[in-house]
Sequence to fold (634 residues):
Amino acid sequence: MSEGSQQDNIVIDVGWDQDEAFEEVDLVEGLDTEDFWTLVRRFNKQIFHVKATSPPPPGGLDLDVSSEEDFAPNKMRAQFERLYMGIMLGTLAGVQHVARLRSWREPRRTAIFCSIYFLAWALGALIPTLLSILVALILRPDFRPVVFPPAPLGMVNYQTGGLSAPHAGVLGSTDSATGAPENMRGEAVENEASNFVTGIAAIAMNVLTDEDPQHANSQKGGGVTELMPSPNEIATKVAVAKDKAAGVDRPSQDKTKVAVEELMWSQMRPLMHAICVVSDTWERFANMLDPIPPFTGRNHRLRLVALVAPLIVSFVLVPGYLISKVAGFTIGFGVFGQPLIARIYEGLNLQQYNLNKSQSDIGSTLLLGVPTDAQLVVTLLRLGEAQNTPLPPPPEPHKSPPKEAIDLDDKTLNATGGDRPLGATEEELDSAASIDPDRLKHAGGDDNEVSGGKEGEESDSKRKKFFSLFKKGARGAAKTAIAVDKTRAKRGRSSAKARLGAASDPKKPCLSGPLEFQASYDGMVGFVYLTTDPAAAALCFSEAAATDGSAHPQGKEAKPVWTIPVADMVELNKFSGYGTKSKMMAGWALDKAIMDGVEIVDRSGKSRVITAVPRRDQLFNRLCTMGEQSWKVL
Fold:
């Protein structure tokens, strides 16, 4: 942690609203500030609901995902985005390295690989050789860029292994598949992940409607889409309409419809949990191989090597035919020996050793003590809280990313043995990375909210007029609904109180931490603030600003309406008064962000819902990391 002064009961604001102050300073020793902010941004998208649990298992890491994790569409979307940013981009990088080897564009490195491979094959030691190289890659981080020299993902053709111009029209980032420009490190990958999930949804809708391309142009036209109760009902109604259009008589006679729909939705939570477990395992392996302070990875890497080393010895000493015999028997026994396996399991009576599934999975054995990215973020934030110096959140984007090519150095593009990177000259590399105006404009796409596509100027103008009128009507309806909510809130309607102020512009200047946050509670507009006594830290709500840079309420008006000790919080849940569909429509109509809130449950089971918090994620993160609780993710 970066050093700073520390005094009892005083929280030091290191500049939560001064993003430029950290451009050249590391908030965490050994970790670049932009990398830290990338981790926090992704944490904010991933974690929605936590609950206090018993002390963490051996390894000291809490924030494990519960098998009873709540299902929600936004959570499923977050898990698919994690899958893209982790496994899918990692797989793409691996495919590109194989393509580079196969292309022979870097002849010296490929010749070395080829010689070692066929020599080991001739000596009958191919698998031990490959496993030995794997051990070297695990133990020696400096060996990895020699064997697999780096290259920007957007500049490598995954089919030919040669140089390719970035799909974004300029090389603005090195870790994204498109090479899109970004303001801060990691933003391009996050945007790609979001657009990847959106693209899947768009393809699914096109498949559902079964559009005939021969009639696509003649059938295009504007229309007001009616609000539907739920996405799956929309899909069902579209499918019924398609059946009727195809001449199916009384589609309701199809008795598979509801059954299949219910079966699929019942598997959504297990699917989401499985994706989460796979992504967690990927992140743990990544943090084992490239540990981030304060974690170290040497002992964990040795544990992994201890698993691989016996395999090397076995393949060297045991004849190949015996290995194939054992492998064949194992596969057959696993397929046909289910009754015998069940009896053996019952006979061992493993329950007497208090073993359960969570204690025997890979996260509690091979990867014990290795954090996921979420656990890493919580650890770093807790270190800041322990120093009375809450780490500042990532800055909000205020401008479009620069449309210029980044500089390539040896850490982002390199080759081994004197080869030219990607077999290209300096001029070819510079040309590929430089701006292609037409491609750059195409990569940004059209403003679908206004134009809806390109069909000629006349059609485009009509579409703009239609959507403009439609949006004006939606804006008027949203403002009317907000006014009605104010009236209903005064009459005591809890649902209206939860939405009150969520669509308002934050007060200027907006108090946004680390001690005080603008918020509403039960229809009252005010602030929540955190007391700074480490022995009895608490969250309070007041209708007046509690601080003017100090740590205690000022004046009679700042008397707290309620107080919750941080130690008594047992559940934190990100809350949206509008709900997903209403929030989306209101945000689009009003052209502004809809502020969300946090639900807090104490030990007595009492729930308090704080709404209209401009920096909801920052408040949530502070509440997660101030106390001594261990959390599990729901």
The first strand starts at residue 49 and ends at 53.
